[in-house]
Amino acid sequence: MTQVAHTRDELVAALDGAGGEVAVVMTMGALHEGHGRLIRTARQRSPFVVVTIFVNPLQFGPGEDFEKYPRTLEADLGACRAEGAAVVFAPGRDDVYPGGAPSITMNPGPLGAILEGASRPGHFSGMLTVVEKLLRLTRADVAYFGEKDFQQLALIRRMVLDLELGVEIVGVPTVRESDGLALSSRNRYLSEQERKSALALSRALREGAGHSDPAAVLATAGKILAEEPGVRLDYLELTGADLGDVPDEGPARLLVAARVGATRLIDNVPIVLRKEA
Ligand SMILES: Nc1ncnc2c1ncn2[C@@H]1O[C@H](COP(=O)(O)OP(=O)(O)OP(=O)(O)O)[C@@H](O)[C@H]1O
Ligand SMILES: CC(C)(CO)[C@@H](O)C(=O)[O-]
Ligand code: BAL
């Protein structure tokens, strides 16, 4: 049976039921199959899975979609029950930030300043602040995050390493629609026409990743994005697999962020670079 905790006290009581390892899947709700995959991956290893549902105000900038972010708690609880979560922690703002808006927050460092960090100032500081808090409140032994938010996953790994948080972080590959669109709660903002335009992101990454020379990767992906009038590109970048410098050969990452109408979407794929023979 899934227990639902809205307060810290209710969470403490629910965690009493954990006999062994506690696995955590953190979300902002509006659950979809990407979240489902995270919960199922966690369940394969740990019988006690805690799902957190909290739209964290600290990671939204002014003018972003905090107010309109989809809140679908009843449906989300149904999904968590169906997936066999032991606990759903869906706290209010005061339960996460009892002292009000925190004046001491995480500094994401240089890795937090590029890509998403450059486009969304303050986002990663707010994200890491809540992730650290939720790891602690849920007494997580292991936590699962999606590769769809690849830079977020890298920063969480780095925070756990640097602050010696003693939690295992597991990355889960991106779940896509059959036509390639990466599942995202924000996809529900898209009109039918915008959804068609949004397909250019995954197509650009897929076709770009078909090349092994960096210039060809970027030219191919860039052309597809430029030819789709419904897409306003924020960035298209090739990096090392750890988001550092592009290697001469070996594993790398191709990442994109773009606006489709008023909706900002991100996506990324792994890629292998090879030197020309
Ligand atoms: N398509 C996906 N495949 C795998 N994991 C995903 C996918 N979408 C989201 N996740 C993961 O689910 C967790 C919670 O993410 P979140 O609730 O923000 O969902 P989201 O769909 O990314 O929402 P948004 O549209 O706001 O970006 C994160 O670890 C995120 O990386
Ligand atoms: C990790 C997270 C739940 C923190 O609010 C959020 O950034 C998300 O849903 O990816
Ligand atoms: N899925 C990442 C959380 C955010 O966009 O705020």
Provide a quick synopsis of the model.
The protein has 9 helices and 9 strands.
Report the bound ligands by name, code or SMILES: adenosine-5'-triphosphate, pantoate, beta-alanine
User: Share of helix among residues?
Assistant: 25-40%
Classification by helices and strands: alpha/beta
- SS field, number of helical segments: 9
**Which overall shape is indicated by the principal axes computed on the Cα atoms?**
globular
What sequence of helices (H) and strands (E) makes up the elements? EHEHEHEHHHEHEHHEEE
User: Which range does the strand content fall in?
Assistant: 15-25%
What's the average pLDDT? Answer: 97
Largest sheet, order of strands side by side? 1-4-3-2-5-6
Largest sheet: 6 strands, parallel
Rg from C-alpha positions?
19 Å
Low-confidence stretches are: none
Q: First CA to last CA: what distance?
A: 58 Å
Word description of this protein:
The chain is an alpha/beta fold. Helices cover 35% and strands 21% of the residues. It is built from nine helices and nine strands. The chain has helices spanning 8-15, 33-45, 73-82, 93-96, 116-119, 123-137, 150-162, 192-208, 214-226; strands at residues 3-5, 23-27, 49-53, 87-89, 142-146, 168-172, 231-240, 250-260, 263-273. The strands form two sheets. A six-stranded parallel beta sheet has the order 1-4-3-2-5-6, sandwiched between helices. Helix 6 crosses helix 7 and helix 8 (192-208) runs antiparallel to helix 9 (214-226). The protein is globular, with a radius of gyration of 19 Å. The termini are far apart. The model has no long low-confidence stretch (mean pLDDT 97). The site of adenosine-5'-triphosphate (ATP) has 18 residues, from helix 2 and strand 5.
